[in-house]
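Each record in this resource describes a single protein on a pair of labelled lines. The shape at a given residue is found from the number at the same position. The record below illustrates this layout:

***
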Amino acid sequence: MKSILFATLTSFVLLSCSATSANDIQEKLPPSNLDSLQTAYFASGCFWCVEAVFESVNGVEEAVSGYSGGEAKNATYSKVSSGRTKHAEAVKVYYDSSVVSFETLVDVFFNSHDPTTLNQQGPDRGTQYRSIAFYQNNHEKEVINGKISSLLKDGTFSKITTQVVAFDTFYKAEEYHQDYERNNPNNGYVQNVSLPRLNAFKKKMPEVLK
């Protein structure tokens, strides 16, 4: 019985966003000049998955993995994973609003994760994996709330646990988390969780892809 339990726990760890190895660590090259672009912030589970989703969208020049929505004045992977900072794994999306609108990015957000599961996304559980749509002004807040109302009204979801939160601070994650899915295609979590999630999104919104 113990051997069966150990095998089950081992499989879960291998399919967790927090499972990494020294061989997985690769440094991300500095992005090109992004100063002229707009930014948006979202949290919807493991940032490896979320970053890959947004980077597949036409008009998105860069997505950066990090932490947001917490109370602590600093955030690191170990602190966020422990729940001590109350941050969520999030992404900072750099986009060209002449190509893709904030409204479309909100559609991408809701079409690429399950907003009905509280503090959970796939095999990842904890407040750091909660669903958050951050707004930087009243227009963005109205767009997000309008989308939630529409999804509930048309029956797409019977409930939505997504938090709508005023953006405050974003802390960039450690370098080995950046472009993780692209740099580590053979990782067990990437193969079994990230890629299926990305491909499911692509089937839902093929019109927005690069």
Summary: The beta strands are 38-44, 60-68, 88-95, 120-121, 124-125, 131-135, 163-166, 170-172. The helical segments are 2-14, 47-55, 77-82, 102-111, 138-153, 180-183, 188-204.
